[in-house]
Design goal:
This protein has 302 residues and is of the alpha/beta class. The protein has one domain (2-139, 225-301): Alpha/Beta hydrolase fold, catalytic domain (Rossmann fold), CATH 3.40.50. Helix content is 38%, strand content 18%. It is built from ten helices and eight strands. An eight-stranded mixed β-sheet has the order 1-2-4-3-5-6-7-8, sandwiched between helices. The longest helix is centred in the C-terminal third of the chain and has 18 residues, at 284-301. The chain starts with a strand and ends with a helix.
């Protein structure tokens, strides 16, 4: 069973609509998906629909405001972390989710959003999944500069940094270099022409205004308004069952992600030894069964 719904979202500058889509049915396991970006959309999660509903899990795809399936207002004041948190709460209320059934999975930027939501509205959650996202952007940037960049082709890296210094982000050479020398190693470990169609489609629908403003121009570190975001020291305030998913080849330091799981009062860690940032694809054999198991274990514990 699939149900599409557009939800009105009240903001300081007006009311807009966001798109949600429920797949499957479950009275006790309803999983709201927070996509990455910011400004990407839910489409790259479509692989979940091939597995989770058959495991008795109700999926809720959701395009955040500014993303492809939802309204895309042209007001930079909307691209603000606290406003996004308030948006998720409005979506929860509209869908009638509560602590008896509400699981939240945030991937990449969605992990930041999920952590912030849990800190403010954790009483409404049954469980939280932070997938492939560190809890400290300065640490993420250090990992990119100190560990990942030295592994790259240095001539290609120099050219990438030169284009960034010129802010020439629409230069086709920029995306080509990032794909050839970084993304196929740390975002999704397959040749670019073998990436799943839904991933290519999702990335092609990115709202770059939102993405560059908050994250910066690429996945090779953060340079936008989130650059100082840090919540590691606050993770012990999130007292709901929490699964942290990390991967060996990720843009995110798996050691930091393991430490996050240990800091959450009820944390668990799922390590994808063959995965990268999109471990739901390049280590699906670990990621998907691990996620399903966590959801069922939390549900069984009541």
């Amino acid at each position: 069973m699939t149900t599409m719904r557009r939800i009105p979202i009240t903001t300081p500058v007006g009311t807009f609509e966001v798109q949600t889509q429920s797949v499957g049915q479950s009275p006790t396991i309803k999983l709201l998906l927070l996509h990455g970006g910011p400004g990407v959309n839910h489409e790259y999660f479509e692989t979940f629909g091939d597995y989770l509903p058959d495991a008795g899990i109700e999926l809720i795809y959701y395009d955040q405001l500014g993303s492809y399936g939802s309204d895309q207002p042209d007001d930079m004041s909307l691209w603000d972390l606290p406003r996004f948190v308030d948006e998720v709460e409005q979506v929860r209320l509209a869908l009638g989710l509560d602590a008896n059934n509400f699981f939240l999975l945030g991937h990449s930027w969605g992990g930041i959003l999920g952590i912030e939501y849990a800190l403010k509205y954790g009483q409404h959650l049954k469980g939280l999944i932070v997938s492939n996202m560190m809890s400290d952007i300065p640490a993420y940037n250090h990992y990119a500069h100190d560990v990942l960049m030295p592994q790259m082709n240095q001539a290609a890296l120099a050219r990438i940094l030169e284009i960034e210094a010129e802010e020439d982000y629409d230069n086709p050479e920029y995306e080509e270099l990032l794909m050839e020398h970084f993304y196929v190693f740390h975002v999704l470990r397959r040749p670019a022409d073998q990436w799943p169609e839904c991933v290519d489609r999702s990335f092609s629908h990115t709202n770059k205004q939102v993405y560059v403003h908050m994250q910066g121009p690429s996945e090779m570190g953060a340079r936008g308004t989130l650059v100082e975001w840090s919540r590691f020291d606050d993770l012990d305030k999130i007292d709901v069952p929490t699964l942290v998913i990390g991967a060996r080849h990720d843009t995110m330091d798996p050691g930091h992600l393991r430490a996050m799981a240990e800091r959450f009062p009820r944390g668990e860690f799922l390590y994808c030894a063959d995965g990268s940032h999109m471990a739901m694809y390049d280590d699906a054999e670990t990621y998907l069964p691990g996620l399903i198991s966590f959801l069922h274990e939390v549900d069984a514990a009541g």
